[in-house]
Every structure is written in structure tokens, then in C-alpha cells.
Amino acid sequence: MKQFTIEIAKSDINATFKEPNDDMDGPVKPRRTLPSKSPSVPNLSQVFRATGPSNNLFKLKGQNLSQGHEQSGQNGLGLSYSSTNLSLIELYNDENGEEEGNESLSASLPEEVGINAKDVVPQQEVIPRQDAGLDDLSHYDRYGFKKQSNYINENEYDGWWKDYSQYCIRRKRKWQSLLEKSGFPMTTEAPDRFPPKSEKLKRYVRKGIPAEWRGNAWWHFARGQEKLNKNKGVYDKLLASLETKEYERRENSRDSDIIERDLNRTFPDNIHFRRRPNESAEPLMIQSLRRVLNTFSIYNPKIGYCQSLNFLAGLLLLFMDEERAFWMLVIITSRYLPGVHNVMLEGVNIDQGVLMLCIREYLPHFWHRIVNKQYSHNNQFLYKLPPLTLCTASWFMSCFVGIVPIETTLRIWDCLFYEESHVLFKISLSIMKLSEEELIHEHGPASKNMSQDDADIEVFQVIQTFPKKLLDPNSIFDRVILKRRISLNNLNQEEIDRCRKYVRAQRLKYKNYADVLGSNPKSNGERNALVELDVVNDALSSEVYGFRRSLTGLHWNNSIKEKVRQIRKK
Amino acid sequence: MLQFKLVLLGDSSVGKSSIVHRFVKDSFDEFRESTIGAAFLSQTIKLENEPDVTIKFEIWDTAGQERYKSLAPMYYRNANAALVVYDVTQADSLAKARSWVEELKSKVSDKDLVICLVGNKVDLCEDGSEPKAVEKEDAESYAAEHGLLFHEVSAKSGSGVSAVFQQIGSKLYAQKKDSLAASSQQRNTVNVELQRPSTNDATSCCS
């Protein structure tokens, strides 16, 4: 085991050198000349081959590895990143693992590279010179994100990473032995098959998938290959259609305008995405991102382009090739977050309604801070969503990308693809639960004298900044997600699906009532006035959503309780 | 200290967040991440023409894409001021700004709502890197016609940004001063009425 990670690093580099020959005979499709393919995860080289890689990609990869240390500093620009990140993830782990042995690390690297692991931090060596000249790369994490943010300084980051990187190494060993025991012999590549779902595997996923396996694991758990097999060649066709005149004439070329404006506003602090002022060449990641977002906007006209998809696609591209990233985006927006990114954003409003019901059920104290008493007894908050949802809506739209620090985001994504969307609700509730302590600490218990507007702002400020400080994923996972015997564990996918159905029906019903009552409300102002009407009010609050609760093995349903009460009244 | 709620509206990437960050943190990033949903920030200023008056702006910064428009009423509900931003190098962003102004005028019942039209990115025209697509006079006359304040600014250089908030602050203060005077007079009369029963009933409530 001691040697394992080192062997991976070695073989990956060797593989990189060999690959140009392996692929010489493959036809080169035009788009591949701008190598779309996963710049980050080297272990996906198998995938590159399967989907028809370009010779260029591997040539440049090779170039980078041999030239990256020359003083001239001219390298394959963005392309050179492709090989670096692979090494970043692998080497960083090794470097921080005391037992892994740094001597053997340097011995395992090819001669040409000439790294002396004792003298230099590995990631400084593998990153292109031009970057190293302008920035000290120790300021960036293993995915190329800046360690420092407005809420976390670099010392804090380094202090935490020292421990967390050890944790990652320990977890990876556990994964390796799990896979071996399950009859998946470990090779030097990232595994592309995983054992069938089980409580044990779920626990492993919740504790984090090894970073360099994530691309494959997400793809596997989200059943990406199934989707791709049903749609062979679709992505290529979509790409081809981007070139046609028809596309340029399209009415909704508005989408591509907004995409264009958002490209440089996607991870501007990440070395793979950022565009330096005065630099003419566009990073390859940005080119990939443009293609994925534009093809997606044609593929799903109900969504087109929605701001936040840029962050989803951007993060996917750090872990998998362009075609896979595209299909994962399709899966996220249809299976996990149905309707959330649609033109009308109705899915977001439904999910926010569901979240509000969950807060009322699981975080009653917090609930009283955010919802005015006069609305809390009935279902008004399902249409007149509390202002807090302006913040929490973005949690769902971007699946926490940019909301929590990156390692925490990735842990959430691990669970999202394994356990589906209820994870997003659980995490949201967890964040609120944890931030409630800060709220009480900073502002004291909920005050009755405060106006709802002031209370809203107080809560909003804490809820908007608190997640940005969640540097350590375990601070949230250990305390909430991995904890047994907490009521939140009752919240499963079935419950969320049921709840979504209920909220959708309630919102629709409200809309219908409003129509019947003679005015088709266009503004929220009119809408709110309508909601005051008793008739609508009574009709809508007659159905109460009942959460399933497991009490002594029985499911207790609130709506049954409510019905019994109503029968008794009569 | 007076508190006012201010909302930023305008097309995607015209520089709403950049204006706020210049105002609140006096900083600028060439590439700023797109705003998803909303962000809340606050900043306190002293009025230049009324040095005794401090004003706290509670600022709601919003996402610019068309589809987020359905969420907008949540922001401009109870707003005292709105900054409607366009990009001086993008003609269609002024059209979008006009539609925001219309929406505010039709949906916000508060007659005192202060709307300020702001043309951003003038630095790009000054250094010649982009042609100016919206002439100052055109935007200015539109603003005058509709009773809006108007400024051209650069979030990048910072020029004009604080003037926007100073002017909005002064206008809000002037309005508030009038209504404060009016309501304090009102309150006095109300108080007299209230005091009567409370003194009379001092004994009766115990019996």
C-alpha cells in the first residue's frame, strides 16, 4: 500500500508519454484539435482513447512534461495544464503523506522531468513556468483554486490541509481495500467500476471519494454511461450544429451572448479558467466550457442557458472530459434538479417551498426567525416565499459550487450523485442548523420586538456568509450527515419527491384560484393581496403536508393527525 | 442614523456587483463571478452636504439574467431606492434598463422611491478600447423625462461611484426630513389622545 500512490504517479506519466503512439491511427476530428478533454484527471486517459482523442492533446501533454522545466518558459499554454493537474492531485497526496516516502517519489519520476522532490514542492514543478513566474503556486490548491478567499486566509487553509490531506490518504486506502475485497483488482488507473450500492458504500461515499477517482465515480453513480449509450454521437452532432449558419440566426442566440459574458466570470481565480489581462490566448478550459454550455442550450431549449450552469459545467470539466461533462449536466438538470434552471425557474420555487417545509419540520426555532407568525400557520409561504430563499435558491441552482469552499463542495457532490437530490436539502438544513449557533451568538435569540424586515436581514447576512467559512467538510459531515440517530436521517429521497409533488400541486392550485377569482395576477403585489382573501386561504391550508416520522418503527403522518382532528370537530 | 433599502437592477454583466464592491469595499476585480440569486451588503456614509447625517444603505445586489426577473419583486418590495444599471458600451443594456424602470414605476406603489439610472464602464470608452454605444445626452434626457437621477460611472476606476450614493442619500434624507416633520406633528396629537384614557383608567384597572 505504501508504494501504491507512487506507482500511480509513475505509470500515469509513462502512459502520457506512450499515448501519442497508441492513437496515431485514430482519425482526428476537427473539434479534438482544441482538446476538449479532461485537463484534470489523467486517469481518464482511457476515456480519451475511447472517445477519440487528438494526437495534439497527448503530444502537448508530453511536451509539457519535458519542456515544463526549461527556462524558456514557452509551453503549450492552457494545454499544459492537462498534465499538471493529474500530477497535482497525485503528488500532493504523496508529498503530504509521511509514510509514502519522498525518496521513492523522486526516484519514480522520469529522468527528463528531473524533479528533486526534496528541494521543491511538487506542484510548483509541474505547473507551467509562465504561471510560476507571476504567481507563487503555493497559493493554489490541488484543483487550481486560490486557497485564500474573503473568509479564509492562506494560513488557515494550510493548517487545515495538513490534516485533511492525511485524512484523504487514509480514506483512499480504505477505498482501495474495499474495491479489492469486492473483486475489483486495483490497477494504476482510476477505477471505472464500483461495487453495488450498500450501506457500507454509502458511508464510504459520505466520507469522501478519492479526488482523482471522482470523475469516474460520479459518472458511474449518476449512470452517465447509460445515458451516453442511448445518445451515441449526439454530442458530436450538437457541436457540428454550433458551426452552422442556422445556429447563428437563431432567435435565442441571446443565450450564447450571455454564455459569452459568463465564460470569464466562471472561476476567475482558478488557474485553469482565469484569463490574464493582456493575454491573447484563451484558456482551453474556457473553450470547453463555451462548447458545453452552447451545446446544452440547443439540446435543452426549455432551459437554454441559465446563469449557474456555468459553475456546474466548470466544476465537471475539472474532473471529466467535455462529452461526459455535457451528459452530467443533462443528468443534473433533469434528474436531480428538475425544472430548477428552466426559463420560468418554477423548479427553484418548488424546491424552496420544499426547503421551507423541511425547515418548519426539522428546525422549528430557525423557522420562527424567518417566517412571520401570520403566515406560518397556513401554506402562504409556499407562494410568498420568505426572502431567505433569495439566498438558498442559489445553493440549489449551483449545487453549492461557490457557496461552500471547494473541498466541501466536492464532498456534497459525492453524495449528490450517490444519494440524489435529497442530499442538497439535508446539507441546506445542516448549514442552517450550524449557522443558528452563530446567529444566537451574534444576535441573541430570536427577538419578538424586531420587525420581520430586520429579522430577515439579520438571518440573510449570516446565512450568506456562514457557508463560505466551511473549509473543513468534516465540520458539517461529521456533525450532521454522518451522525446516526438524528431526526434529519428520516429525510430521504422518497420524502423529497413526495414533498416536491405536494408543493408543485399547491402552487398550481393557488394559481388556478387566482385565475378563477378573475384576475390573472401579474405582479407579486396583486398576488399578495389575493392571498389575503380568506377563500383562497382556507382552501389552500386545508391540506397539510405530513412528514413521515419513524417513531418506534411506525410512520406517523401529520396529515392523518390533522384529518382525525377535522373529523372530530365535525 | 437613517437606514435605507437599495436594490440594484440591470442586464447581466453590466457591472452591478462591481459598482457595489467599489462602493462597499473600494475594490475592483476585472473578472467577477456571476451573481446567482442575490447578495446582501451594507455601507454607511456621511452626507457631504449634511455632515451630521449618517446613512446606512442596505444593498440588495441581484442576478441580471432575464429569467431571474420573476424573483425581483422580492428585492424591490419595500425598497427606498433603486439603482438601474446599464453598460455604456452595450446599447441593448439601456433598453433593458428602461424596462426595469417601467417595471418599478408600475409595480412599486411608493411614490418616494428614488430611481437612479447609472451608465457603467465609461473607462472603456475613455481609454479607447470600446466605442461608446450609448450617448450620455440620450440617457440623460430619458432620465430627466422620467424623473430619475442620472450618473455615468466607472466601477473600475471608481469615478462617479460615490457621487451616486451621495446624491441618492441626500434625496432620501430630504424626503425623510419632510415626512419626519409631518409625522412628529401627527404623533404629538396622537399622544394627547392616548394619554387621556390611560391616566383616567389608572384606578379602574385595579378595581
TrEMBL record, chain A:
Composition skew (Polar residues), residue ranges: 35-45
Database matches in SMART domains: TBC
Chief location bin: other
GO annotation, cellular component aspect: cellular bud neck; cellular bud tip; incipient cellular bud site; mating projection tip; polarisome
Keywords: Cytoplasm, GTPase activation
Molecular function in Gene Ontology: GTPase activator activity; small GTPase binding
InterPro entries: Rab-GAP-TBC_dom, Rab-GAP_TBC_sf, Rab_GAP_TBC_domain
Compartment list: Bud neck; Cytoplasm
One GO term (biological process): formin-nucleated actin cable assembly
One Pfam family from the record: RabGAP-TBC
Record domain Rab-GAP TBC: where: 208-420
PROSITE patterns for this protein: TBC_RABGAP
Chain spans, region Disordered: 15-45
PANTHER family with a match to the protein in the record: RAB GTPASE-ACTIVATING PROTEIN 1-LIKE (PTHR47219), TBC1 DOMAIN FAMILY MEMBER 2B (PTHR47219:SF20)
Designated name of the protein: LAMI_0C07800g1_1
Lineage: Eukaryota, Fungi, Dikarya, Ascomycota, Saccharomycotina
UniProtKB/TrEMBL annotation, chain B:
Coarse class of the protein's main subcellular location: membrane
InterPro entries on file: P-loop_NTPase, Small_GTP-bd, Small_GTPase
Annotated spans, Disordered: 182-207
One of the GO BP terms on file: vesicle organization
Pfam families given in the database record: Ras (PF00071)
Signal peptide boundaries: none
Name of the molecule in the record: LAMI_0H14444g1_1
Mode of membrane association: Lipid-anchor
Species for this entry: Lachancea mirantina
Lineage: Eukaryota, Fungi, Dikarya, Ascomycota, Saccharomycotina
